[in-house]
Design goal:
Elements: H1 2-11, H2 14-18, H3 24-37, H4 41-74, H5 98-172, H6 202-219, H7 257-262, H8 291-308, H9 319-349, H10 374-391, H11 397-426, H12 428-433, H13 436-444, H14 446-452, H15 464-474
Helix pairs in contact: 1-3, 3-5, 4-5, 4-6, 5-6, 5-8, 8-9, 9-10, 9-11, 10-11, 13-14
């Protein structure tokens, strides 16, 4: 045909021969046109759908291995002494927890770099599939248009034949009942045409979301199982399509971002690496506290992908976004609440929690104590970290804010109890009320007995704190 001849002429050009990958659209057109002429286009579609999950997983493995090799060659990874890393451990002077906080920060940076590399390759993979399916859609539309023209031509031919037969009946005098015994061939029934609007790269985006959910579950340390539908079951082959065709577009041969930055290889020279299964990633410490650092980046990738795919549903209903929202609501917020409770308990149980806080470089010229105490400084930093993480999450803010309110209520309640315990011993009036001579005076004075309620009490059952409470009420 003219189309294949034109493509072959372009293929013989020097530009295409020296760099065939430079014109990927022409390469796809040549392959798909050849498959169409051989009648193997349905098998081509089936092969693309069946291999997409395997290819995407291979891309993640390549990016992970390359980035892991980059960090192993550049520096020695710092591992924390405890696997239960405290995300908000306050790094005060000589606290000894700086390495844990630094390890979590490094893990977040590496995870973001890995996600950016994977998102970059996945974007190119999605665009390649969109180009392929646009070509297939155009060919299907052209084929169905030709079939419709052929059906219309057959209808016109049958109509002319009926008209000729009717003329013959009228002029020859043959009765119409004789036609009932005739052997006129019946026209073939109209074959149902396939809806070309369903031919798109949406299944690729669903497969990408499935692989990204698996990756996030690994690095976010997800405990609960997420039930995701297997997208391969929705892409079953129609009867008659060939399953044995080994046809594939080498999307997995796209060079990784880390490899390009390190070696700058060509597209054809990149070889896929076989990775061994391990218990878990050691170069990135798995933690639910990676969510605030990664959430907005993942949402941006979701919006970008939905803008690329034609006739895509609402981005708010994507399986990847639903996974993140469910994880934040069901696992992340309860974990934050439990850790905040643990940290507040540690702050309040410290023997120096309510001692004056001496700032660095302060010169004490007198005995005037500091206004702030150790616990107030540590608790304010905890609230600051809580609010920072809350502002990084657009969803479930009300539930997260409830965690902050509970933490503040608990700390303020403890401070109030501590204030009531320590204040009577600090006030001069409380010291006077606790004096033995003043107690005797109150017992002999009737007016004092009415005010302080000391009538009938002995020296042993007198409580200065209760007297202080009565005094504060009168004030």
């Amino acid at each position: 045909s003219e189309t294949i001849s034109e493509l072959l002429r372009e293929e013989k050009s020097d530009t295409f021969l020296t760099n065939p990958d430079g014109n990927s659209a022409l390469l796809k057109s040549i392959i798909l046109e050849s498959m169409n002429k051989l009648g193997r286009l349905p098998s081509c579609q089936a092969a693309l759908k069946n291999r997409v999950n395997q290819e995407l997983k291979k891309i993640i493995d390549i990016e992970t291995d390359d980035l892991k090799q980059k960090y192993s060659l550049s520096q020695t990874l710092t591992t924390s002494r405890s696997r239960n890393v405290d995300p908000w451990e306050l790094v005060l002077k000589h606290s000894g927890h700086g390495s844990q906080r630094e390890s979590l920060k490094n893990s977040q940076q590496r995870l973001l770099e890995l996600m950016n590399n994977v998102f970059g390759v996945f974007t190119r993979v999605l665009q390649n599939h969109i180009d392929v399916w646009n070509i297939i859609r155009a060919k299907k539309e052209a084929k169905e248009k030709a079939e419709q023209l052929e059906i219309q031509a057959k209808k016109i031919e049958v109509k002319r034949s009926h008209s000729d037969d009717l003329d013959e009946i009228l002029f020859s005098g043959i009765r119409q009942s004789d036609l009932m015994l005739g052997t006129r061939p019946k026209p073939k029934p109209k074959q149902p045409t396939r809806d070309v609007r369903g031919v798109n790269a949406w299944f690729v985006w669903e497969a990408i979301q499935t692989q990204l959910v698996k990756m996030l579950r690994l690095y976010w340390k997800v405990n609960q199982q997420v039930d995701l539908a297997n997208q391969d079951k929705q892409n079953k082959l129609r009867p008659g399509e060939d399953l044995k065709l080994d046809f594939r577009f080498e999307f997995s041969d796209i060079p990784s971002v880390a490899a390009l930055a390190r070696e700058n290889p060509t597209v054809r020279k990149v070889e896929t690496k076989k990775t061994e299964k391990k218990e878990g990633p050691q170069w990135i410490e798995a933690s639910p506290y990676h969510v605030p650092a990664c959430y907005r980046r993942v949402v941006a990738f979701i919006d970008q992908a939905h803008s690329m795919v034609d006739d895509s549903p609402n981005p708010e209903s994507s399986s990847l976004r639903n996974f993140m929202n469910n994880f934040i609501r069901q696992e992340f917020i309860p974990r934050v609440q439990a850790d905040a409770h643990k940290i507040i308990t540690r702050i309040l149980c410290d023997t120096a929690s309510f001692k004056p806080f001496d700032t660095v470089g302060r010169v004490s010229t007198d005995d005037v104590p500091s206004v702030l105490v150790h616990s107030s400084i540590r608790f304010s930093r905890l609230v600051n970290n809580l609010m920072r993480d809350m502002l990084s999450l657009p969803h479930s803010v009300s539930d997260y804010l409830r965690v902050v309110e509970l933490a503040c209520d608990r700390y303020l309640q403890h401070c109030e109890e501590k204030f009531k315990q320590q204040l009577p011993s600090k006030l001069y009036s409380a010291q006077v009320l606790g004096d033995v001579n003043f107690l005797k005076l109150c017992k002999t004075d009737k007016r004092s007995q009415r005010v302080f309620g000391t009538r009938g009490r002995t020296k042993t059952d007198y409580n200065p704190q209760s007297v202080f409470k009565v005094e504060s009420q009168h004030f």
